[in-house]
Design a protein that fits this description.
alpha+beta; Fructose-1,6-Bisphosphatase, Chain A, domain 1; D-Maltodextrin-Binding Protein, domain 2; 2 domains; 6-stranded mixed β-sheet; 5-stranded mixed β-sheet; Inositol_monophosphatase-like; metal ion binding
Length: about 350
């Protein structure tokens, strides 16, 4: 008797094929997934485009900040205490601005790392970049500059100076975006929602803001945080003498602009910016980039450059200056342990 053969119906053949495909997929899904992930990570980003997008994001978030303050719908609450013992406030201005800014950037460049001061569980905004590049950027940055997406970290501060925002001290409030490449601050944007003023800088390419004509570092005006101005006053006067003038102010973005010439009559002017305690990187990255783009410096109190990758905070304090011998300023600073 001839051996009995196995015959499959067309349906059986289809099922067999599907099972085979499933087994192959199961075996190679991990490999394919990693290959696709590797391919995606090799995508590049044009930094000139990212500068324009950052400005649009800061201004979009700023409109939310302004609207909620003017409507008096802040719904403020405390997130806890800062290291200086002040309330770390959160408002609807912070959250709404975060959603607009974060998702505008992520919708445009899904594969770059975006770190924001705020986090929420809201569904992603459908906001899309207009792809408009402002005229002043085109004039100052003549060509695009492609960088691998995996080298980029974007830091956003949806509302800097929240405490002052709740007190209706509007001049201190800013929204900020910073782009770091390999940890170095390259692009910075600081936007003032209540005046509509926007400052930007692109290291090695240009900036929308400029230094003032001169700075006094013999008896300087030192701008510091309102929350611990007493501590910094003693520190600064030990370094620069009893004639040192201390300017308490809110918001790191505001303090950096005080070192420049923002063409704003209500904006105080300072020669040096000092911070002696822990500070988050989304507070200072944009200002660092803008200062570097016009020849300034922002370092730790020991003179070390601040790396904008990895952890969220900078523990080494902060010294910012422009058109001065920054290293000589560092040498004049006392040890914090002595104060």
């Amino acid at each position: 008797m001839a051996p009995m053969g196995i015959r499959l119906s067309p349906l059986g053949i289809a099922v067999f094929c599907l099972l085979g495909v499933g087994v192959i997929y199961h075996l190679y899904a991990g490999v394919l997934s990693s290959r696709f992930a590797s391919f995606r990570q090799k995508s590049t980003v044009d930094l000139r485009d990212l500068l324009a997008l950052s400005i649009e994001a800061a201004e979009l978030g700023g409109r939310e900040v302004k609207r909620i303050r003017e409507d008096n719908t802040l719904e403020e609450k405390s997130k806890g205490k800062t290291k200086e013992g002040a309330n770390d406030m959160l408002t609807m201005g912070d959250l709404n601005s975060h959603r607009k800014m974060f998702y505008l950037i992520k919708n445009t460049y899904p594969h770059i790392q975006v770190n924001s001061e705020e986090h929420d569980n809201a569904e992603g905004e459908a906001t899309i970049w207009t792809r408009n590049i402002p005229k002043d950027i085109l004039e100052k940055v003549s060509e695009g500059k492609e960088v691998s997406a995996e080298r980029i970290t974007v830091w956003i501060d949806p509302l800097d100076a929240t405490q002052e925002y709740t007190e209706n001290l509007r001049k201190y409030v800013t929204t900020m975006v910073c782009v770091a490449v390999d940890g170095d601050p390259v692009i910075g944007v600081i936007h003032k929602p209540f005046t509509g003023y926007t400052a930007w800088g692109f290291v090695g390419e240009g900036a929308s803001v400029a230094p003032r004509a001169s700075y006094n570092t013999n008896s300087p005006k030192v701008i510091v945080s309102r929350s611990h101005s007493g501590t910094v006053k003693k520190f600064a006067q030990t370094a620069f003498g009893n004639n040192t003038e201390i300017i308490p102010a809110g918001g790191a973005g505001y303090k950096v602009l005080a070192l420049l010439d923002p063409k704003d009559e209500e904006h105080e002017k300072a020669d040096i910016y000092i911070h002696v305690t822990f500070i988050k990187k989304w507070d200072i990255c944009a200002g660092d980039a803008i200062l570097k783009s016009v020849g300034g410096q922002m370092t730790t109190l020991k003179g070390d450059q601040i790396n904008y990758s990895g952890s969220e905070g900078n523990t080494g304090g902060l010294l910012a200056s422009i058109k001065t011998d920054h290293k000589s300023l560092v040498k004049r600073l006392p040890n914090l342990e002595e104060n």
